[in-house]
Amino acid sequence: MRFGPVPLAEAGGAILAHSLTAGATRLKKGRRLGPAEIAALAEAGVAEVIVARIEPGDLGEDEAAAAVARALAPDPQAQGVTVSAPFTGRVNLFARAAGVLRIDAAAVDRLNAVDPAITLATLPDWSRVEARQMVATVKIIPYAVPAAAVAAAAAAAGPMRIAAFRGGRASLILTRTPGMKESLIAKGGEAVAARLRALGIDLAPPVVVAHETAAVATALAAAPAGMALILGGSATSDAADVCPAAVVAAGGRLIRFGMPVDPGNLLFIGEQAGRVVLGLPGCARSPALNGADWVLERLAAGLPVGDAEIAAMGVGGLLKEIPARPQPRAGRPAPGPTGRPRIAAIVLAGGASRRMRGSDKLLEPVADGRPVLRAAAEAALASQADAAVVVLPPDADARRAALSGLGIAIVEAADAAEGMAASLRAGLRAVVDGADAVVVLLADMPEVAAGDVDRLIAAFDPAEGREICRATTADGRPGHPVLFGRRFFETLAGLTGDRGAREVLRDAAEFVVDVPTGGRAAAIDLDTPEDWAVWRAGSVA
């Protein structure tokens, strides 16, 4: 890649390195300079620009980021991750479900050693993660990198995965010492139950017995199937102490007593009747993170926990000196700022097709014979949007039939005759409670694909000021779909008539980011028989 200042006359086709204002036009960095941009800059008196130009043998930032991400997650569903579309050289990976992250730290180091321009940042191996939480991000720093370096980085990458929590059932034995307060016993039981609920594990009614080996052994032998937990009324101080000895007395065996995690040193683990028996340290009565949490998380995810695994927990195991560490054991927290946003897709199909002179443009077949309405709905469903709805006018039986078998939610806009705003309001009402953003698709755009929607979702980042993401053609012409963040829901719901969201885009220009999509799909909007005829002839209407 060549980077640096060039005369404006030589900048055609290059990538603008720094944002510039050309008269009334604001050109953001990363914009590919075409004839219109060159003309605007020349008119504004700009003689020289700093640009990047991709050369043979280079990969653009998005293509490079996607290649590295594919090496990390060649089978995302099986690995328990969701992979975002690339945007500005970045691909994010998110957990599909709550669980434990497994990642090869040495492979991450090898990848990051290939070329400083190719970077991968992840959460630590063994991290507990929640659904939708970001677990890794690939970032290509310049606008392009050598293809050979990308290939080397991909070869160095080790696949990652989320070991999802599997649920299950556990029993809990609590022991009582003479004079022990009932409130302390109850507190311990409640803390353990909260931990297990957060891991999706059901807890059988706890059993309270005397702090004696025989009593604990009897309770253990009678405990229902599933993992068995023991929380002693007195701390375990030796492998031959009351509770570890009870495991052996019940026909089981002790695997390990003690762990290099503080708090949590006095944990023990054993096996009895084919199930895990976990002796909890006294600190388990508190919701604060301790070594028992690490063990319970791995067991809940179906990962092995034995002598060697516990012995390897020492690095990072000084938990009591990390006051900023969260205490999520009372329940699963909602995704934080790095969580994958919840996106809904709204397909607007409430128009009357007045310009089609008697036929319905949304039932026009596209190349493979599907009605264009069905193609738009399928694109929404195939995208990374979490929910999708189609908005129809009343009595649109033929349009409903075109959507048959898709399983997409259909919303009726009783006042659809008012114009596009009515359909948009109806779609928003259907999704507003569960969405961080909505992607608005027009049903008469035959070339918009799921990948175009994914590009908009990848671009959405309120923290970076990217709260409206508008699709453009490859050469920069703005069009559809458009993604709107929650900030704008109230404004969109107040629109009237057939203006759509043009005013929102105009008034919130500082929040708008243009997202290039393939070819000219974002600008192909077919409203008349002539439009359709030209498009079918291979031209752009």
What does this structure look like?
With 541 residues, the chain is an alpha/beta fold. Strands 15, 16, 17, 18, 19, 20 and 21 form a 7-stranded mixed beta sheet that branches. A 7-stranded mixed beta sheet has the order 24-23-22-25-27-26-28, sandwiched between helices. The longest helix has 17 residues, at 182-198. The chain is elongated, with a radius of gyration of 29 Å.
Concise account of the structure shown:
By secondary structure, the protein is α/β, with parallel strands linked by helices. The chain has 17 helices and 28 strands.
Instruction: Tell me what portion of residues adopts beta-strand conformation.
Output: 15-25%
What is the first-to-last residue Cα distance? 36 Å
Q: What overall form do the CA principal axes indicate?
A: elongated
Average pLDDT, rounded to a whole number, is 92
What profile does the largest beta sheet have?
7 strands, mixed
